[in-house]
Specification:
By secondary structure, this protein is mainly α. It is built from eleven helices and no strands.
Length: about 240
């Protein structure tokens, strides 16, 4: 990206915005609001005519995307994947469905596809952590002391269990645990039915209990502490819902 690119930034976490003084007269007739106060869907639509307004979406969501990708691939890869996520979103913004749950699932879905290109690297890093207890990716799992999921994840048994999951199950589980997504948001991010989300999460729970044992984030009460303290619903009977993964 160049300095003239509306998505160009010097850091991922400062939360500042260059486009916050732009006006929304065309997006919200009869009102005048700074872009920083506008809903995501309005900004996506407005950016079709004024591309620079997409920069506000970058400011809002890039830190979260970067943190999620860093937990899975490490910080170095996260820089590239985050940049490519927003460049891709910018290119296809005309296809964004404003009827979805929000921009976050859309962005995480793009990021998930890019993460899939690094599937071998992710599994290799997890297996290395499982064998040695040390890996650069694990450092990104413990940034927040009060995040019990990331603290538990930095364990050798759980790393081994995560590596053993299929790519689809791992995407669903980590969107739930690390992005704090609802079933509906996971479905939209991965472009799969909600029933398939349930199937993947149920399967992941079972496999993690078997492989990770007491280190599994799923205890007897089927609860998992996410970034917002969300609890996993009770384990449901396994149904395939047409999910071959």
């Amino acid at each position: 990206m160049t300095d003239s690119d509306p998505l160009c930034r010097s850091s991922w976490g400062n939360g500042t915005t260059r486009a916050g003084t732009a006006r929304a007269d065309t997006a919200l007739p009869g009102t005048v609001q700074p872009d920083t106060a506008l809903p995501d869907a309005v900004l996506v639509a407005a950016s079709l005519d004024e591309p620079e307004r997409f920069a506000v979406l970058f400011d809002r969501h890039a830190p979260t995307i970067h943190q999620y990708v860093a937990r899975r691939l490490g910080r170095d890869a996260a820089d590239d994947v985050t940049a490519e996520t927003f460049l891709t979103a910018f290119r296809i913004r005309a296809r964004y469905d404003s009827g979805l749950a929000g921009v976050r699932p859309w962005l995480h879905g793009i990021a998930a596809k890019l993460i899939s290109r690094h599937r071998r690297e992710e599994v290799k890093a997890l297996k290395l952590l499982a064998r040695t207890g040390r890996d650069p990716v694990a450092e990104t799992w413990t940034d927040s002391a009060d995040d019990r999921v990331t603290a538990q994840a930095a364990s050798r048994p759980l790393a081994k269990a995560l590596a053993a999951l299929s790519e689809g199950d791992r995407h669903a589980l980590l969107l739930f645990a690390w992005a704090d997504f609802s079933y509906q948001e996971i479905a939209e991010a991965l472009d799969i039915p909600v029933g398939t989300v349930r199937s993947r999460l149920n399967r992941a729970r079972r496999k993690l209990r078997v492989t990770a044992g007491p280190y599994s984030p799923f205890g007897e009460s089927d609860e998992i502490a996410g970034t917002a303290g969300a609890a996993v619903p009770p384990l449901e009977p396994h149904v395939s819902e047409g999910d071959p993964a």
